[in-house]
Amino acid sequence: MSKHMVTDDDLHAYVDARLPPARRAEIEAHLAADSEAATRVRAYQAHRQGLHDLFDPVLDEPIPASLRELAAEIDTRLEARGTRFVARRLLRSRIAAGVLIASFGGALGWLAHGIHRPAETLAAGTSLHRQAAVAHAVFSPDVRRPVEIGADHEDQLVTWLSKRLGVPVRPPKLAALGYGLIGGRLLPGNSGPVAQFMYQDAAGRRLTLLVSTEVATGGDTAFRFAQEGPVSVFYWIDGKFGYALSAGIPRDELARVAADVYGHLENR
């Protein structure tokens, strides 16, 4: 047993490898004796790995030439004006920090490609699959609260999401495919709310369905597939709705589920 009470902060610090060796040993002893805490830690680790899988490849992209040129231009101007050495070093440090921040911000921007542009300028589905992939990676590993309202209050969930989106929305039934509804939540979209429904099969695998009303008119309504790190996404436009089905399962299996979801929505 650990010498001190173990909190969620301790568990997150353990997952992030931020504990000193002595405290880490205490936490490991605690996890060996507490299966519930061990399950939470595995979920935190899966959550962390999912985010790394999504974002890390983008962080390896080169720094944009425009930022390198800006740093060089400022440095040249400082040299031309004979600015004191210490002042130049300080400003260069600030520029370098700004470049790093801009680079990381660019990575996030790439993943949420187009989020900050007006929704009406987006082609149909441009950012829908990336929104869905990020939301799936963030919430599907959560053990304690993967949804805001559970399936045991489905009527309340449907009423709440329909009111917030301004149109009737209801989760499709996927029991025939082995997936039961866990519940759902409200998420921010490009210019308003979007809905996320979450399902789980007997093996504990989860899939999520993102429903958005932020779709451009006149877009291609065909099924499309995207792979965002470990997350597979099928997405499509149907009338005023955009749908994106996400899961960490093989493409062909997700395609069968997506076809069933589409058929269920068409036959309402």
Describe the structure.
This protein is of the alpha+beta class and 268 residues long. The protein has three domains: 8-59, no CATH class; 65-111; 124-266, Phosphorylase Kinase, domain 1. 49% of the residues lie in helices and 17% in strands. The protein has a seven-stranded antiparallel beta sheet with strand order 1-2-3-4-7-6-5, sandwiched between helices. The chain is globular and about 60 Å long. The termini are far apart.
> Class of the largest domain in CATH?
Alpha Beta
Helical residues, percent: 40-55%
* Spatial gap, N to C terminus: 55 Å
Q: Which secondary-structure class do the elements indicate? A: alpha+beta
Q: What is the CATH-assigned architecture of the largest domain?
A: 2-Layer Sandwich
Strand order of the largest sheet: 1-2-3-4-7-6-5
CATH topology of the largest domain: Phosphorylase Kinase, domain 1
Key features?
268 residues; alpha+beta; Phosphorylase Kinase, domain 1; 3 domains; seven-stranded antiparallel sheet; 8 helices
